[in-house]
Amino acid sequence: MDRVLLRWIALFWLTAMVKGLQVTVPDKKKVAMLFQPTVLRCHFSTSSHQPAVVQWKFKSYCQDRMGESLGMSSTRAQSLSKRNLEWDPYLDCLDSRRTVRVVASKQGSAITLGDFYRGREITIVHDADLQIGKLMWGDSGLYYCIITTPDDLEGKNEDSVELLVLE
Q1: Residue 111: CB atoms within 10 Å
Q2: Are strands 129-132 and 38-40 parallel, antiparallel or unpaired?
Q3: DSSP states of 37-79 as a string?
Q4: What mean pLDDT comes out for the span 13-20?
Q5: In this structure, how many other beta carbons lie within 10 angstroms of the beta carbon of residue 164?
Q6: What digits encode the pLDDT tens for the residues 109-162?
Q7: CA distances (Å), 92 to each of 61, 67, 96, 138, 152, in order?
Q8: Contact of 145 with 159, CB cutoff 8 Å
Q9: Rounded to whole angstroms, how far apart are CA atoms 40 and 144?
Q10: Which residue segment(s) compose the domain that 145 sits in?
Q11: CATH number of the domain within which 125 lies
Q12: What is the number of structural domains in the chain?
């Protein structure tokens, strides 16, 4: 009897895992040119029959990434990241130590830009890709694709891509 119960629990668990919300960003890092357009891709799958809400959030670097790009990173950051290979001094810090803002949201066909991005050529295309018309210096940072559905609460609902804007 216990084996039958365990099998049913395992089957239920596996079914829930397959049907859960899954968000993936195919490119974890993207380098793009200043004043050029770019698209940050985001894919998701859900078992929900309700329309998903798509939101893109921006998080600035914890430290200036341009110094590293030009070969001028700090020795303190280098020594700390050598001690802990999983820790990145540019990406890993509390949100209270960096700028965090909503770039755009999409619900159905309605797209709303965050206050900071109003007036810029930014939209969400396809299901969840963020399209930016002209990149600015301040666009370098982490972008989070966050998907919310009212009835699919299991799984992974966000993923991120690092965008580095170069001249």
Answers
A1: 14
A2: antiparallel
A3: -EEE--EEE-S-SSPPEEEEEEE--SS-SHHHHTT---HHHHH
A4: 52
A5: 17
A6: 999 999 999 999 999 999 999 999 999 999 999 999 999 998 888 899 999 999
A7: 8, 17, 12, 18, 29
A8: yes
A9: 10
A10: 23-59+98-166
A11: 2.60.40.10
A12: 1
